[in-house]
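Proteins fold reproducibly. Take a sample protein:
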Amino acid sequence: MNDHSDGGSIRKLWAADGPAFRDHLLRLDPATRRNRFGMVAGDEFISRYAKTSFTLDTLIHGVFVDGHLVGVGELRKLGTSRTEAEAAFSVERDHQGHGFGSRLMKAVVLSARNRRIRRIYMNCLASNSQMQRLALKAGAELEYEGGDVVGLMVPETPSPVSILREAMGDGYGWATAVVELQRRSVIDGLFGRA
């Protein structure tokens, strides 16, 4: 899950990552924004969305390249259901095509599996062929409904190995976040804040 072959590492985001999450969404180009939200999404909408994401029952994984958040995979429970959730993904244009979407998908599905989520829904525009390929690659069944596509995945039940994989990924993610924070503190101390 934390393969660095493309220079990125994946970890769960914390509430303190809220500004980085917001900034990532604001950096999405218009086409990627539209694909992510299924509509034209302005800066104000995105700022509100990012602010509330950490207060809802949402688990967000982020991919970091050189300490910057460049992609996310979100898993949000649907209403009061304990067994159904929605997944959504975004990767900034300059970082697409490096396998980050597939790695985020694996992290989100593993987390869903370990939380006993039985159905993961992914909604996208019919024109969003990247998301459809990603969903199919992960084993989703796709249904076309007007101008939208709904993908459905049914994760396996959790196992001791799947729980250990997630725990190891969390430990690694926490350690890399601490190292990155220390690195930034040293750089800020040497060169002043940019």
Q: What stands out?
A: Residues 114 and 159 are 8 Å apart (CA to CA). The longest strand covers residues 68-77.
